[in-house]
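Module 6 notes. Inverse folding takes a fixed backbone as the condition and produces residue identities as the prediction. Think of it as a translation problem where the source language is geometry and the target language is the twenty amino acids. Below is one complete input and output pair. Work through it position by position during the lab.
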């Protein structure tokens, strides 16, 4: 299996828990492998209802792709003195990977995914879109296999 790209389009969140006494500036850190965390931009104007409209691009290595793979999206509140966890969203990637198994692009929209607080309770929602990028090498292999089968 070839390497793939995954775009995580961060749209917005609503009704997040306020974790700082001063004005909260929210941002998202995305990861599949905890040793490779990719931060998004900080929204400094909307407090507990941040808007990002920003895309994080991640690489999915062929050797590590599996049907049990999860995307972790951690929402953090940056205050005047400290940064604190707001909550998180964990997305299983099995369905998206299956839709793009032949190498074609695949999209999954999450218009209002619940944000899970560190306590385990839900509070607020997070809207984002996942886009698995096309893999020309996988498409060529699938087309070759299909032509051979005919």
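Target side of the pair, the amino acids:
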């Amino acid at each position: 299996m070839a390497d793939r790209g995954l775009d995580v389009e961060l749209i917005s969140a609503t009704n997040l828990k306020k974790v700082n006494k001063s004005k909260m500036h929210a941002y998202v850190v995305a990861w599949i492998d905890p040793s490779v965390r990719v931060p998004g931009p900080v929204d400094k104007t909307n407090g507990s209802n941040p808007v990002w409209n920003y895309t994080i691009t991640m690489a999915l290595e062929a050797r590590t792709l599996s049907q049990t793979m999860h995307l972790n999206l951690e929402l953090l509140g940056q205050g005047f003195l400290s940064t604190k966890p707001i909550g998180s969203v964990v997305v299983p990637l099995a369905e998206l990977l299956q839709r793009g198994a032949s190498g074609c692009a695949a999209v999954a929209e999450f218009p209002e995914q619940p944000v899970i607080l560190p306590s385990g309770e839900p509070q607020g929602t997070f809207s984002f879109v996942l886009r698995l990028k096309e893999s020309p090498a996988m498409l060529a292999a699938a087309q070759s296999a299909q032509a051979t089968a005919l």
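Reference fact for the lab report: DSSP finds two helices and eight strands in the chain.
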